[in-house]
Write a structure and sequence with these properties.
- This protein has a six-stranded parallel β-sheet, with helices on both faces. The protein has a three-stranded parallel β-sheet with strand order 6-8-12.
- The chain has eleven helices and 14 strands.
- The protein has 320 residues and is α/β, with parallel strands linked by helices.
- Helix 2 runs parallel beside helix 4.
Length: 320
């Protein structure tokens, strides 16, 4: 396993930066090739190989896979929920075309494993909102959610048709101090920490009692690597596993921040993202992931808040 050569497509995104660094710690810097259409992220500089790559350029990707002897591929490219609604057709093209060409590449080059993230955005207003089960009604109302659900079905199809080992997780909202928000509906839970430290106030684009499933990035990275290292015969779904850690509202995260910054205030001005959030679950049942491959989260809301504020303070001091 440690002799695998890994290609990460979309390494400069919110998940990609931290997953790249974590995989380089596990597999060795030279064995994890990072790529993105953007300039190399500052946190990745000097940590391992980096190439500029357009995820829709199938020829260049194929050439890079052969050149580097790639055995595993992580495709992290996607336009997210709020950004995606501004140009649905473009979002569909990027999210779907990149996945389908990677799945074809996996079959052609006999890649040992492929990782492609899904999201709680696959769920919709008709889905049970509390402890949403692994198998349930799935009727997404955003193009991002539609593309993720279609992608899950494609992953399952390639596994059943060609035996391709594709693995996936339905991420909840992800919170990190290392990278900037990426245009998602849950990004208020990242922005709020920045604004609390900079201005001691925040205007939230969701209403105060909007509960959504959330996860600290440290847990998401551990969960991703845990899934990819799990024995194939333990995995009972080839679509995407529900993954959960905590659920909270803007009002509750504000209260958690106020334990550290008593003068912090929050007000609410819901926008179009409120309708997206209202169509998503309030909490997720991830019993299948816990049973099949031993998933377990480490961070709750207060532990995450303390860690976020600590690292963001250090980051701001370095910039200053």
């Amino acid at each position: 396993m440690k002799n695998d050569k890994i290609l990460i497509v979309g390494a400069c995104g919110q998940i990609g930066v931290e997953l790249t660094l974590a995989l380089r710690n596990v597999y060795g810097s030279d064995n994890v090739i990072a790529t993105d259409i953007r300039n190399e992220h500052p946190l990745l500089k000097g940590t391992g190989p980096y190439y500029s790559l357009n995820a829709l350029d199938a020829v260049s990707m194929h050439e890079l896979v052969k050149k580097e002897g790639i055995t595993q591929l992580y495709l992290l490219v996607a336009l997210l929920s709020a950004t995606g609604e501004k140009d649905p057709k473009h979002t569909w093209d990027i999210n779907m075309e990149s996945l389908l060409q990677v799945l074809d590449l996996g079959v052609q080059e006999k890649l040992s494993k492929i990782y492609w993230p899904s999201s709680i955005a696959v769920f919709g207003p008709t889905t049970p909102t509390t402890d949403t089960p692994q198998k349930t009604i799935i009727e997404p109302r955003t193009v991002y959610g539609v593309s993720k659900y279609a992608g899950e079905l494609w992953c399952q199809y390639y596994n059943q048709r060609w035996g391709l080992d594709v693995r996936s997780l339905r991420y909840p909202g992800l919170i990190s101090w290392k990278s900037e928000p990426g245009g998602g509906t849950t990004d208020y839970a990242v922005e709020i920490y920045h604004e609390a430290l900079k201005h001691q106030k925040y205007t939230c684009f969701l209403s105060e009692n909007t509960y959504l499933p959330m996860m600290y990035m440290d847990d998401a990275i551990r969960g991703t690597i845990g899934l990819m290292e799990a024995p194939a015969d333990k995995l009972k779904t080839r679509m995407a596993y529900n993954l959960a850690a905590m659920s909270f509202s803007p009002k509750e995260i504000a209260a958690s921040i106020q334990k550290h910054i008593p003068d912090f205030t929050i007000d609410y001005n819901p926008d179009f993202r409120q309708a997206i959030a209202d169509g998503w679950p309030k909490s997720i049942d991830d019993a299948a992931a816990r049973a099949d491959w031993g998933w377990k989260n480490d961070f709750d809301l207060d532990k995450m808040t303390a860690d976020m504020l600590l690292h963001l303070k250090e980051k701001m001091m370095q910039v200053a």
